Target: 4-hydroxy-4-methyl-2-oxoglutarate aldolase
Amino acid sequence: QGVHLDMASAAISSWTAANMAALPLPTAEVCDANPHLIMNGELRALQPIFQIYGRRQVFAGPIVTLKVYEDNVLIREFLEEKGHGRVLVVDGGGSMRCAILGGNPVQQAQNNGWAGIVVNGCIRDVDEINGCDIGVRALNSHPMKANKKGMGEKHVPVTFAGTRICDGEWLYADTDGILVSRTELTV
Model:
């Protein structure tokens, strides 16, 4: 019986260690612990221009980039794919003329395992989005919907909120702000 308990506790502690590593790190602690990464530009903080939406206020994951302008076809296409814990970073050109993300695609993103979505633009269906277990950051909300022409660029470097963000980098978000790192961070 003692052997079974030891094996069970060993399995639990290895599971705990593996899953603790996947938990998002507090952004303030990351900044305090990595001044050298901030100095050399490998760790950047986005300017504090985003509103917090969705039930998951803390999220992290590898970045997928997308550049669109007042068009949401490519956003919807991405979120229909399995997310595998990734974060979709959308440069919507900072447009305040319409929403490029709504409740249905966010619900789909949640169901497909995306960790979060950061939008340099507006969203709509805020109450529906706030009910989803996913992290969403956007400049604001807007009732008008986007165009559906399918224009945009996938997996390209985007620049907004004071920094350049590349496909494959890592994003860490919490209520203090958003960090982008060239590589995955550990405590």
Q: What stands out?
A: Helices lie at 2-22, 27-33, 35-39, 73-80, 103-111, 126-130. Residues 2-22 form the longest helix (21 residues). The longest strand covers residues 59-67. Residues 1-22 have pLDDT under 50 and may be disordered.
